[in-house]
Structure formats: C-alpha cells, structure tokens
Specification:
The structure is a homodimer of 180-residue chains. Chain A is mostly helical and 180 residues long. Helix content of chain A is 71%, strand content 4%. Chain A has seven helices and two strands. The first copy, chain A, has a two-stranded antiparallel ribbon. In chain A, strand 1 and strand 2 form a beta hairpin. The longest helix of chain A has 36 residues. Chain A is elongated. At the A-B interface, helix 1, helix 5 and helix 6 of A face helix 1, helix 5 and helix 6 of B. The structure holds a DNA duplex (30 and 30 nucleotides).
DNA sequence: AACTTTGTACAGAAAAAACTGAACGTACTG
DNA sequence: CAGTACGTTCAGTTTTTTCTGTACAAAGTT
C-alpha cells in the first residue's frame, strides 16, 4: 500500500466533490476542478503547471483562471525571478462565499431594481390616464402591486448582501458554533 | 397609443429582466421566462396555455414546470371541473429565495460534509501509520487542516440555511427596513 | 535588434444542453 | 368498453457552451 498514492486518491475524490459542489453554483466542472486542485496545491502555480496537472490546454487554463479571478476565488501572486504568472486559491471559504454571492447578486439586484422602478413609473402614468380601458387599468394596478412587492424583496436582498460584505452576518451566525 | 399594448410591453420587459436574473442563479432563460409569465398571469395556467403564450412545445412546458415545482417556485393547483393540470407561480419572493437556496445548498452541503469527513478519517489513519514517508505524512497533515477548515465552513453554511428555513434571518435582516 | 518566452484572441471542433414531435400510458367520458 | 384528452418519455435535432490549436502581441533576454 503506497501512502503517496493513497493521499493522491483522497485528494482527487475531494477535488471532484468540490467541483460538483461548485457546479451547483453555476460553475463548470472543469473550472471547479481547477479551483480544487489549486486549493490543495500548496504553492502558487503557473498556467503551464495547471495545464500539465489537469491535462487540458493552456488556453483553457488561461480563461478558467480568469473566471476564478473575477469571482475572487483565485489571486495572482508575484514572485521575484520568474516571468510566468503565478496563481493561488483563496483559502478562506467564508470569504469566498461572501465574494461570490456579493458579486453575483449585486449585478442582478441593481438590474432588477432599475427595471422595476422604471416599469412602475410607466404603469402609474398609464393608470392615471383618462382615456384608458377600465380593464387595462385594473390589470396595470395589479402589476404595480406585484412589482412593488418585488422591489421590496430586492431591497431586502441588498441589505442581506450588505451584511455579508460588512461581515455582520457573522454576528448573527457566528463562524464558530460555540460562540455567542 | 394603446394602453393594453403598452401594458403588454412593460410586462414583457419585466419578465425578460426576471428571466435574466434567474439565469444568474443557474436557471435557463426559457424557464425564467415561464416563471415570469406565470408570475404576472393572474390565474393558474394549463400547459397548453403556457405553450400558446410562449410559443414553445408542450414537452418543454411540462419539463420546465416540473423544474420550477422542484424549486417550489410554482405549485400545482386543483380546480374542480377541469381535467388539465393547473399551475401558478409562488408569489412570495422571500419564500422563493428561502426555498431555492435551501434546496440547492443543502444538497451540496451534505455531499461535501460526507466526503470531507470520510477523507479526513482516511488521512488520519495514513498519518498514524508507521511505515510512511515523512514527506507524505506532512502533506497529509496539511490536507487534513484544509479539510477541517472546509468542514467548519459547511457547518456554518448549514446554520445559515437553518436560519433561512426557520425565518430567523428576518429577525436579523427584517423584511421591512423600518422595522427593528 | 533578433530571438524567446509568455499570455490571450480567435476560429473551428467537440461536447453538452435545450428543445421538439411522435409514441405511449393513464385516466376520464360517454 | 371504445374513444378521447392529457401529461410524460424518449430519440433525434438544433442550439449553446466548452475546449483546443494556431496566430499574434507584449515583454524579456542575449
């Protein structure tokens, strides 16, 4: 029984699990595997090393690593002497969680708030118009109610994300369960 | 200027925004559009009506609506007299949010906790073995540390989801911002 | 300045996902 | 019990996404 080999097998299984999990969050398996691999690799890696390790093209490594950087799951590190770019995984998963959802959700929230606000305004103008079919008016009123409800939800979600970014969420749900 | 037409246009734009947003959460545009459409449709709809409204196949409607049901974003309603299944959108987006992430995250959490726990055990057995290369042992120890950190994160995430399901999250981040 | 080395853009190939129509099973209707 | 209406399964097609190799630009080396 070779210890090194066994360690390797365990790692691979865990990496696969991590990848599957990230997949659930809309990240492809390949990118998930790359992250997992970087997470267990104890030194920053170059694109060529990743390519070697995963048996994929350098192009893929380049784009995948950028995706992970955009999500702040990987960072570029600088090392004297080498010309190659070096990357390492963000190790703090609490931070990863915060960054991931802040980035993803904020984008959607502002988009939606803008659309809803604009639409409510337009429909209110419509309902106030004299020359309008009564049926349309009441339909518009219902829509306005729904959009206002949506707006209030987005506003709540925004505050939730605030609590992530400020880390106040950890006052409420402490990292260590024995705290509090 | 036709009011009905204008209302239609506004609705469509908002539905498109909703779809784009859901897309961010890993739901296809089509399914997102279906949800948005149902959200603004003030009566439960049959598969044939959806098919008509969206210009897609009945097969797609059937599978899409099932996806939405699995996420508890749509529910089947029963109406006396009709043989067709009727579906309507869950209107409470706070609830939708809770259900969506509870369902998605729980799946990943338990999968990961299981994998990590098992792997930690295996590696601990490995590190305790006499006949093992010192280098492998220290590598295994590092891995164990990382997996334990991961485990503690998943345990935290589980508690976060608990607070969603119990709605305690609203004590911390109230729905109405003036509350508290 | 010529030559390397490195990362990325881009176009095309391969793989995966979404979508459809036909066929089927079940349950209701007369 | 035959006939019809309905939802779903499944195989095949279309569309989208992922992945690769080549080409190229930028920066470093000699």
């Amino acid at each position: 029984m070779d210890g090194k080999e066994q360690l390797e097998r365990v790692r691979e299984r865990v990496i696969e699990t991590i990848a599957k999990n990230m997949n659930l969050y809309g990240i492809t398996d390949s990118i998930g595997r790359l992250y997992g691999m970087l997470y267990f690799h104890n030194h920053p890696m170059t694109l060529d090393e990743m390519k070697e390790e995963l048996g994929m093209s350098k192009t893929s490594m380049s784009t995948s690593v950028r995706t992970l950087m955009d999500l702040k799951m990987v960072e570029k590190v600088w090392k004297k002497g080498t010309r190659k770019d070096l990357y390492q995984a963000e190790e703090d998963w609490y931070q990863t969680f915060i960054d991931f959802f802040s980035i993803k959700w904020r984008a959607g929230i502002s988009m939606n708030i803008a659309a809803m606000t604009k639409s409510i305004l337009e429909l209110e103008r419509l309902t106030n118009s004299e020359e309008i079919d009564e049926e349309v008016r009441s339909a518009a009123k219902i829509d306005i109610t729904k959009m206002k409800a949506a707006l209030s939800y987005y506003e709540w979600l925004n505050r939730l994300v605030d609590s992530f970014e400020s880390e106040e969420i950890f006052d409420f749900i402490p990292k260590n369960k024995d705290e509090l």
